[in-house]
Amino acid sequence: MKAYNAKDIRNIAIAGHGGRGKTTLAEAMLYTAKATDRLGRVADGTTVLDFDAEEKKRKATVSTAVAAIEWNGAKINIIDTPGLFDFAGGMSEGIRAADSVLIVTAAGSGFDVGAEKALKAANARGISRMFAITRCDADNTDFYKTFAAIKEEVGAAICPVIVPHMENGKVASYVNLASRKAFDYSGGTKKEVDMPSDAQLDEMLDILTEAVASSDDELMEKFFAGEDFTYAEMIHGLRQGVKDLSLFPVVCGSAIQGMGTRILMDTIVELLPKPQDARALMAENEDGESSEFVVAPGALPTAFVFKTISDQYGKYSYVKVLSGSIKPDMPMVNARTGETEKLGRLYIPKGKKYTEVKELTCGDIGAIAKMDKVKTGDTLCEPRKVVKIEPIPFDEPCYSVAIAPKTRGQEDKMAQGLNRLNEEDPSFRVVNNAETHQMVVSGAGDIQIDVLVNKLKSRFGVEVVLDTPR
Predict the structure, then answer these.
(1) Residue 312 predicted with pLDDT over 70
(2) What's the mean pLDDT in 13-39?
(3) Tens of pLDDT along 192-220?
């Protein structure tokens, strides 16, 4: 994969409630863009992004995974985040690296808690968001029920772009309201059909037109004059509204059938912001003064570590390059420790596979190998300009258990295993209570703890027992 300029990169976190089809949608994007040669299925354990043994067993995402695709001259970095609440730390990591959030929900569902949490996280980060309503082809589903639930939550910011045309309770075609074109996927391929007309589509077009008009004064004047917008004006208004957070586009489809995936990726490239257009992060300089850190391709190199993988194959620090570009063996200062380290080899991840590259450019996401002293949340800087980017906001742990090895003498091995796992997942804490002589692990819930217990056994060969903290 070639190196892309920041203007041609889109970093998108896929978030939402567990079981709504986030990973399936990401796999459909990978397959459609020919980044994989088969469509991975969660139920079969064949997905690129849910590669961990625990994820395959539970058929659910438990940690953030990254993969890149090339589409329409752009590079889209897909960041697949967990939907289970016990692994909300993974969503926090993914949204920190993203410039926009794709909130996934399923046709027929309401505005569920996972969508609410994802929207809240996007609001807190101040980045663009888009909604994808999946499973539109499933029996007894209702796109318009889910659209109404989203509209009730976000109000006038809702902006339908891709909607289904229904006939006899089934999807007859998918309509791109911006271009006023309809596509039929029933034969297994995408075929343009005549633009349908019904009351629901007319209502959706009215909502889109009014939303686009609100994004630009000139478009508003044209709207009040009763003139139709051109496609270019639609895209201009949508892009402006997405950038200033006044519009939230809604698209739809069926990932498992590959319906609407191409239009979704077209929409991501056309509408979602480039890294330098997203909201700036706050950073602290060496004097402790805070200011906005603006993404700048021509500036001195700076990279933020948003995730760590530390397994039997080695340690990878996932970074987003915020300015300049980075190369192997480049000396960079860790703003947390003040120490200078040489960068290891650079990689582009695709699930558990890594492709080595010679450079990571501004705005891009990749992994650095064997940075033993680097942790999630660290900022790597050019020695001439050391800054510390604001930390990732992890929720406070609310569930605690006492943990001990089943076999005497394995206390140190267990502690080392927990430390390694804590590098990967900083959302849980380990405390050695001197008064009660217990080691206490605190996390978001029992599923997170159960995953830790299983990983201690499979990766580090330590079986443990859990108890109520004294």
Answers:
(1) no
(2) 94
(3) 999 998 899 999 999 999 999 998 889 99
User: 74 forms bridges with which residues in the sheet?
Assistant: 71
Measured between alpha carbons, how far is residue 402 from residues 226, 412, 466 in Å? 68, 16, 6
pTM across the whole model: 0.94
Amino acid in position 302: T
Average pLDDT value for the chain: 93
Half-sphere exposure in the Cβ direction for 165 (13 Å, CA) = 23
What's the pLDDT score for residue 71?
96
Which two tokens mark 12? Answer: 């998108």
Q: If DSSP states are collapsed to H, E and C, what string results for the chain?
A: CCCCCHHHEEEEEEEECCCCCHHHHHHHHHHHCCCCCCCCCCCCCCCCCCCCHHHHHHCCCCCCEEEEEEECCEEEEEEECCCCHHHHHHHHHHHHHCCEEEEEEECCCCCCHHHHHHHHHHHHHCCEEEEEEECCCCCCCCHHHHHHHHHHHHHHHEEECEEEEEECCEEEEEEECCCCEEEECCCCCCEEECCCCCHHHHHHHHHHHHHHHCCCHHHHHHHHCCCCCCHHHHHHHHHHHHHCCCCEEEEECEHHHCECHHHHHHHHHHHCCCHHHCCCEEEECCCCCEEEECCECCCCCEEEEEEEEEECCEEEEEEEEEECCECCCCEEEECCCCCEEECCCEEEEECCEEEEECCECCCCEEEEECCCCCCCCCEEECCCCCCEECCCCCCCCCEEEEEEECCCCCHHHHHHHHHHHHHHCCCCEEEEECCCCEEEEEECCHHHHHHHHHHHHHHHCCCEEEECCC
**Structure tokens belonging to residue 164:** 């289904």
Region 268-293 average pLDDT: 90
Phi–psi pair at 151, nearest 5 degrees: -60, -40
